[in-house]
């Protein structure tokens, strides 16, 4: 570790920044304080980055400022331009570049470490290099899966577990060599093996589980940054990285629990054969489909309606039309709420963001545990672009990949209307028995068009 | 106390703080929280600036500058996109008695 030669005032500023990061995370955990929390975090980050320019005699300042300007523009433009539906990909990508940066920083710092450096410090550097590389490669594969640049289904091939095990072993051996010889050459090898581990870690993960992996990789990058902070002797990096690592790990466990899965089964389930490998094919069993007018009558005279929005809704950009329909139904005297599954969308909490974008009042978004007891007394449930989160197979079929995941008990409502583009199964790739239930009506078509037709038909009633 | 133990103490306490501050978060906020935490680890930019500023060869300078660009993308992009998301949440009318959402 480089000795901490920073003057006292610098140390105090760093302490203040660390406290601000704690306040930022705390703020982000509450709906009222979230935006303020984020701004506090951003301010602290800017101050912390500015400090070394003031008291250290840094070389290449102009080039560094250019690099910061380039990165800032790329990041800000990307963040402004992204569609809310593509949020998970973007978070994965930002996480990946952060992990990559940490690995590069550790590689450079290793060049400064002398032979007299304690083994523990070199070990922390090796950890940063390896885990940063894992996080970078894993995030890139996650991005490719979510952006559908590659299949979102689990990718497994014979010998993958053996290869994965061999790579993990190679990581340990190379890390040992780095510590023993303090050599940058071995560390570069370690980074390359880390990249391969990252790729193989995410390949077997099925589409529906990818969000959990983003959260896990986020936590890993946090730990990487923390280790980097220890190596550089910088308290802000240590505290901020540890905060993100710890809260990210905890958040990952919370999300996995919401899906009724363990983190281990999400990561390695496909290797054992089960997991989210599904049929993935359209069925030709008979279903009851209806036109917009019939569905409008069903909805128009219902007293209690619950809407279950899914990712398909957001893909069709139909949130605004849906909100209009709900407003018209409410004006006709129906009680209407949105039932939000914790993992609706492509990322936990994603659906709330998508509906908030369409200015749906926050109070109409009801969480799963609160809406489920009401569903048996609900006249019509309108499912728009959702599938897996209402699939009763999660309760009834132990062999189903989603078995055990808590779902919205839509099958207990009096009537169910599905707005679907086709009979293709959901993201998890399994068939939904509810579609064939006699109480279920299907309205085929693009979600936005179907909703517009429904809206017109309800208005005409 | 040796210096390593001081660092270990800070690390362990930070772990507890990290878990504690988000233990009661509602699933509504999982996405912004993940994205905000993601932005916070962009602080590795500070580390990138420190190593780039002391680079002594062209190769290390180039690698350092690449790390600086990547870290800035993480930090700036992360905070901006989190703010964009949260902005939408705060657009809703604030006052309304807690009810059953009817």
What does this structure look like?
The complex is a heterodimer of chains A (461) and B (102). Chain A contains 17 helices and six strands. Chain A has 461 residues and is an alpha/beta fold. Chain A folds into two domains: 82-272, no CATH class; 292-459, Rossmann fold. Residues 274-281 of chain A have low confidence and may be disordered. Chain B has a domain at 28-90. Residues 92-102 of chain B have low confidence and may be disordered. In chain B, 72% of the residues lie in helices and 0% in strands. The radius of gyration of chain B is 20 Å and the shape is flat. Chain B has four helices and no strands. At the A-B interface, helix 1, helix 2, helix 3, helix 4 and helix 8 of A face helix 1, helix 2, helix 3 and helix 4 of B. Chain B: Residues 8-91 form the NAD(P) transhydrogenase alpha subunit C-terminal domain. Chain B: It is an enzyme of class 7 (translocase). Chain B: It catalyses: NAD(+) + NADPH + H(+)(in) = NADH + NADP(+) + H(+)(out). Chain B: InterPro entries: NADP_transhyd_a_C.
Assess the beta-strand content of chain B as a share of residues.
under 5%
Order of helices and strands of chain A: HHHHHHHHHHHEHHEHEHEHEEH
- Based on helices, strands and strand pairing, what is the structural class of chain A? alpha/beta
Unreliable residue stretches of chain A: 274-281
Distance between the ends of chain B? 60 Å
The multimeric state of the shown protein is: heterodimer
Detail the poorly predicted runs of chain B: 92-102
Radius of gyration of chain B: 20 Å
Function (chain B): The transhydrogenation between NADH and NADP is coupled to respiration and ATP hydrolysis and functions as a proton pump across the membrane.
InterPro entries (chain B): NADP_transhyd_a_C
Membrane topology (chain B): Multi-pass membrane protein
Protein name (chain B): proton-translocating NAD(P)(+) transhydrogenase
């Amino acid at each position: 570790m480089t000795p901490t030669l920073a003057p006292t005032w610098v140390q105090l500023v760093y302490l203040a920044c660390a406290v601000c990061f704690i306040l930022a995370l705390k703020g982000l955990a509450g709906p009222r304080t979230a935006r303020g929390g984020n701004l506090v975090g951003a301010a602290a980050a800017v101050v912390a980055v500015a400090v070394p320019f003031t008291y250290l005699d840094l070389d290449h300042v102009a080039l560094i400022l250019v690099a910061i300007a380039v990165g800032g523009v790329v990041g800000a433009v990307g963040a402004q331009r992204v569609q809310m539906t593509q949020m998970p990909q973007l978070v994965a990508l930002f996480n990946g570049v952060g992990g990559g940066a940490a690995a590069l920083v550790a590689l450079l710092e290793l060049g400064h470490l002398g032979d007299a450096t304690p083994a523990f410090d070199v070990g922390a550097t090796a950890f940063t290099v390896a885990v940063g590389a894992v996080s970078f490669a894993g995030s890139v594969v996650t991005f490719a899966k979510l952006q559908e640049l590659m299949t979102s289904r689990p990718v497994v091939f014979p010998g993958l577990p053996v290869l994965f095990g061999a790579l993990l072993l190679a990581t340990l051996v190379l890390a040992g060599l780095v510590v023993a010889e303090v050599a940058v050459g071995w560390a570069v090898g370690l980074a390359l093996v880390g990249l391969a581990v990252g790729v193989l870690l995410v390949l077997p993960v099925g589409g529906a589980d990818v969000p959990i992996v983003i959260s896990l990789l986020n936590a890993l990058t946090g730990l990487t940054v923390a280790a980097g902070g220890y190596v550089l002797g910088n308290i802000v990096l240590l505290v901020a990285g540890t905060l993100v690592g710890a809260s990210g790990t905890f958040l990952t466990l919370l999300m996995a629990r919401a899906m009724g899965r363990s983190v281990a089964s999400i990561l390695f389930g496909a290797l054992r054969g089960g997991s989210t490998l599904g049929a993935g094919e359209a069925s030709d069993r008979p279903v009851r489909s209806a036109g917009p007018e019939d569905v409008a009558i069903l909805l128009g005279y219902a007293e209690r309606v619950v809407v279950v929005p899914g990712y398909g809704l957001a893909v069709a950009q139909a949130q605004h039309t849906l909100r209009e329909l709900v407003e018209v139904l409410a004006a006709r005297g129906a009680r209407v709420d949105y039932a939000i599954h914790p993992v609706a969308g492509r990322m936990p909490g994603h659906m709330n963001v998508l509906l908030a974008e369409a200015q749906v009042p926050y109070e109409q978004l009801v969480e799963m545990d609160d809406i489920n007891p009401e569903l048996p007394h609900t006249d019509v449930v309108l499912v728009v672009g959702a599938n897996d989160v209402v699939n009763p197979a999660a309760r009834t079929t132990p062999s189903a990949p989603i078995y055990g995941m808590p779902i919205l008990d839509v099958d207990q409502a009096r009537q169910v209307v599905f707005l679907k583009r086709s009979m293709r199964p959901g993201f998890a790739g399994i068939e939904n028995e509810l579609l064939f239930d006699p109480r279920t009506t299907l309205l085929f078509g693009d979600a936005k068009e179907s909703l517009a037709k429904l809206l017109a038909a309800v208005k005409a009633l | 106390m040796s210096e390593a133990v001081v660092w270990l103490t800070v690390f362990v306490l930070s772990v507890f703080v990290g878990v504690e501050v988000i233990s009661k978060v509602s699933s509504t906020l999982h996405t912004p929280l993940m994205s905000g935490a993601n932005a916070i680890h962009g602080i590795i930019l500070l580390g990138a600036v420190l190593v780039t500023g002391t680079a002594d060869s062209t190769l290390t300078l180039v690698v350092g500058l690449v790390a600086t660009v990547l870290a800035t993308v993480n930090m700036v992009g992360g905070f901006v996109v989190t703010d964009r998301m949260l902005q939408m949440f705060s657009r809703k009318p604030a006052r309304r008695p807690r009810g059953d959402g009817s």
